[in-house]
Amino acid sequence: MNKIRWNIVSGVLAVVMAGAWAAPACAQMAEVKEKPRMYTYEAFWSIPRARWPEMGKANPGVQKILDNAMASGGIVAYGTDSAVLHDADGATHDSWWSAMSMAGTLNVLDGLEKSGGTAASVLTSATKHWDNMWVSKYYNWHSGSWKGAYTYSAFYTLKPDAPDNAIDVLAKNLIAPLMEKLLADGTIVEYEIDEQAVHSDAPGMFVIDYISPTAEGLDKFNAALHEAVIKSPFAGPAFGSMVDWTKHRDSLVRTSATYK
């Protein structure tokens, strides 16, 4: 998702914010309403290359805790990621789980810490480690498990003078409707629009994530996005005026995930 495409999107958002959402390409996609808050705990590590193979080996104790939490309804999803495009200062691996409450995520973390699952030798070799707590009001998925899927994440930061409802406008009127269409046809198996629940970074950051089960799905997504925005007759600076492009980043990781 490059800057040119999102500049096209800005024209659509200009119309939305003016109260005149009428783009033919998007009029066919019903507005998506926000859902109950879903929280995701995500732990990141920078692991020395020689130890990457160890990160792919299942830990029976950790797996049991996650499976039990899923079965009891404590969490609704969990997974692990490994970087495809490596950043010199970024994480090589992460693990995460999602629940419908912050307590649901923290209870799993507590169980893992008590079991020693967070003290595995490969994790202690990490040169960097940090965590995030995300919250999403716009998300959906297909139930099931996937290995070797791809997660594409686009990170944005709103400008200080962006409207208070900027993320809601973007989510309801463009991103989530498009994601729902691609979820329905199987191009993607999950999406979410995240904000930090605990602001370890400055407020205003949001992340658009989607999981494609295949590499071809990434191309299908980009083609669908291009088609959706190119059909709109509107152009304008609304999206660009809300987002600080100097802070925009993308990531691409390989994902193994299970969704309830």
Low-pLDDT stretches: 1-28, 233-237
Structural class: alpha+beta
Whole-angstrom Rg = 19 Å
By CATH, the topology is: Alpha-Beta Plaits
What is the number of helical segments per DSSP (H or I, 4+ residues)?
9
Considering DSSP H and I runs of 4 or more, what fraction of the residues is helical?
A: 25-40%
Which strand-content bin applies to the residues? 25-35%
Task: Provide structural commentary.
- With 260 residues, this protein is of the alpha+beta class.
- The chain has one domain (3-259): Alpha-Beta Plaits (2-Layer Sandwich).
- The chain has nine helices and eight strands.
- The protein has an eight-stranded antiparallel barrel with strand order 1-3-2-8-5-7-6-4.
- A hairpin with an 8-residue loop joins strand 6 and strand 7 (205-212).
- Helix 1 crosses helix 7, helix 1 (3-17) packs across helix 8 (215-230) and helix 4 runs antiparallel to helix 5.
List keywords for this structure.
single chain; 260 residues; alpha+beta; Alpha-Beta Plaits; eight-stranded antiparallel beta barrel; 9 helices; 36% helix; globular
Helix-strand blueprint:
Blueprint: H1 3-17, H2 24-27, E1 38-46, H3 52-55, H4 60-72, E2 77-83, E3 93-99, H5 102-115, H6 121-124, E4 128-141, E5 144-157, H7 166-184, E6 190-196, E7 205-212, H8 215-230, H9 238-242, E8 249-259
Helix pairs in contact: 1-7, 1-8, 4-5
What's this model, at a glance?
The chain has a single domain (3-259), classed as Alpha-Beta Plaits (2-Layer Sandwich). It is 36% helix and 30% strand. It contains 9 helices and 8 strands.
